[in-house]
Amino acid sequence: MLNLQLEPAKRQLEFAMSKRIQKVVFIHGVGAGVLKEELKYLFKRYPLEFYDADYQKYGLGATEVYIYQNN
């Protein structure tokens, strides 16, 4: 089940990078935190920053990603 969630996340991240989109929000839910931790592991392989998304807008279960763009 985890791979069914991680593969689309990876595709969306690579799509955003190819289209030069700087910010993306990944909704992972709260749960036990397994998906959130796996997303963090995925994000560390790319040139980006990630942090908890705006609580008032997304609640607790979302991570915002800022992608560094090469000029």
Provide tags for this entry.
alpha+beta
Give a written overview of the molecule.
The radius of gyration is 12 Å and the shape is globular. Strands 1-3-2 form a three-stranded antiparallel β-sheet, with helices on one face. It has helices at 2-18, 34-43, 55-58, and strands at residues 23-27, 48-52, 62-67. The protein has three helices and three strands. The model has no long low-confidence stretch (mean pLDDT 94). Helix 1 (2-18) packs parallel to helix 2. It is of the alpha+beta class. The protein is 44% helix and 23% strand.
Strand content: 15-25%
Secondary structure class reads: alpha+beta
| Tally of helical runs | 3
In spatial order, strands of the major sheet run 1-3-2
What global shape is seen?
A: globular
User: Largest sheet, if any?
Assistant: 3 strands, antiparallel
Compute the CA-based radius of gyration.
12 Å
Low-confidence stretches: none
Number of strands: 3
How many angstroms does the end-to-end distance come to?
37 Å
Oligomer: single chain
Q: Mean pLDDT, as a whole number?
A: 94
Give the proportion of residues in helices.
40-55%
Q: Give, in order, the helices and strands.
A: HEHEHE
